[in-house]
Write a structure and sequence with these properties.
Chain lengths: 195, 195
């Protein structure tokens, strides 16, 4: 019986970007299904009392080196976004609006790449608009969907669900109820998805 | 040319215990020299603004599961010490006092095992005394050495040196200037020690 990998993420998290870059291949290798679970990391931090490693300068500095090592191991580009941390509320609402649609993956790809390869200020509506147009989206349509009260409520509930499951940071994956925090647990996730 | 693994640790850190259980074998496999660097984790936390994962309840709960997974992978016993967190000032002074002596490794082994296998309250002088006797030490002699002003100063300087090198938590290893934080970076440490 094939397993399910639930992937809780926020596009403002470089570790989420790294995990996102590898999880589809892990799902393919293991035959597991990959379920994307957008959540608002700021909400998770607020509810749990956790904070970004970047709030401790020495930890933030090391964390950048550490993530770069993993990016090199994975063979993906990771650039340090100079506008980090970026408020991702609008972006995560947009991502939520397109969940379970064929446009979800192109949208997520455009946002993650803009954030962690092109180092754009994705907290700025004009910048977001440009990225969306280049990815073949109509920015007005995306932003209208993102402002839908049902979508706002959906992201809020998803974030509350994440907190209820014991999540305190991003990325976090569940494989059949087993929780794995961090992009540095992909080997454990792959083993759990395979077993 | 053989490399050096510098191992910064505090006996009050379960992740330090896990790294300590594996590093001698890594040094042997890679031909690297292992240099023990006792430091006071409480001092590191205070200076850097960092704190134990246990201060965020959801993170502490996950961290216990995560470390147990690694303990199982390594084939070592790790028990959750009910007295955690324990003030390790006296213990780390004692460990510092025996650095570069033949009694260093037996002392460290006795303390780490008392803390993370036997789950003893190693903040209590009477408990420490019993553990020392069982390990073949004279507790009065150990405590006299630990109270030597030169030893106190040595631990203080070692902790300041650690902070100066960018350390924010334990365990942290350096392999030829490259820093690796966490017992979950042993594969990276082994690769760096071998290269």
């Amino acid at each position: 019986m094939s397993k399910t990998i639930e992937f809780y993420f926020d596009v403002g998290s470089p570790a989420s970007y790294l995990a996102w870059s590898q999880l589809p291949a892990i799902a393919e290798r293991t035959g597991a299904s990959l379920v994307y679970k957008p959540m608002l990391l700021g909400g998770v931090f607020m509810a749990t009392g956790n904070s970004s490693p970047a709030t401790v300068p020495a930890k933030g500095a090391y964390s950048r080196i550490d993530m770069q090592r993993y990016a090199n191991r994975y063979g993906v580009t990771l650039n340090q976004n100079p506008f980090f941390p970026i408020n991702t509320l609008q972006l995560m609402r947009a991502v939520t609006a397109y969940q379970d649609t064929p446009k979800f993956e192109p949208l997520l790809t455009a946002i993650f790449n803009a954030m962690w390869i092109s180092e754009l200020n994705m907290g700025e509506p004009a910048v977001i608009g440009k990225v969306l147009v280049e990815a073949g989206f109509d920015p007005e349509e995306v932003m209208a969907k993102a402002s839908d009260p049902a979508v706002k409520e959906q992201l809020k509930r998803a974030t509350e669900e994440a907190i209820g499951r014991g999540i305190f940071g991003a990325p976090t994956c569940f494989v059949d109820g087993e929780m794995f925090f961090g992009q540095d647990r992909l080997d454990w996730i792959e083993a759990a998805a395979r077993s």
